[in-house]
Predict the structure.
Amino acid sequence: MPFKTILAIIQSEEDAQRVSDCAGALAARFESHLIGLHAEALPVPYTSTIGFPDAEFIQATSEINDERSKKIEAVFRERTAGAGVAAEWRSLESFSGDSAHSGIASARSCDLVVASQGGEDGASPDVDALLFDAGRPVLVTPREAPPLAAFRRVVVAWNGSREASRATFDALPFLIEAEGVEVLLVDPPEGPDDVEPGVDIAAALERHGVAVTIHNAASGGLAADDVIRNRLAETGADLLVLGAYSHSWLKQLLFGGVTRTVLQSVPVTAFLSR
């Protein structure tokens, strides 16, 4: 099933162009309705020295926020105008000013959410909130690579979890069109002698017409995210499909993990679902 409603979460001027380019191209490919969304923080009600709200400060902050929002909207409209898609813009305000948090309600009525990888200035949307609360897949555009809307070679990180299954089948529109899809298993557990790990999911994908292979990788002491990163480089993959937080969210927050690496530094586009 193609993605017919796509939501572009734009947090800052830094990510406006690449998120708009990616989402616009996807909407053109799938003939989708595209929604651009940005949120600004509500002005903090500072008080003056005599205890009254500082109206001038609040007004100035509101004007700055409004100007920034209009600049981001202009980038979105400019970058998507040439794509010939039906697009709309949603400008919101919230206490946090985080576009991902503010966009959760909109995301729940969409097929796909497009957001950016974390920026160097820290101005990135809280993709975790989308993954945990929106219930929709998120396509994360890399910070230092061109935004893509079609993918030639895909690596599916498979560990047999519910999250991995959800992400794999959510990503079917991309997998079906890819030239090659690799199901990657890192240190797969031993099963019955006559059952190769990953065979069932590979067979299910083949029934959808996906050109799929299986690769079992031994970590050799490396962390799983390093193994995946190395395999992406070896295969020349341009998309990683990953079940987000299939291990403890708290453990990944404290000690790192594959999902956190993807959200921060994986150099290819990533499709995450939970």
Summary: The first strand starts at residue 5 and ends at 9. The mean pLDDT is 88. The chain has eleven helices and ten strands. The radius of gyration is 20 Å.
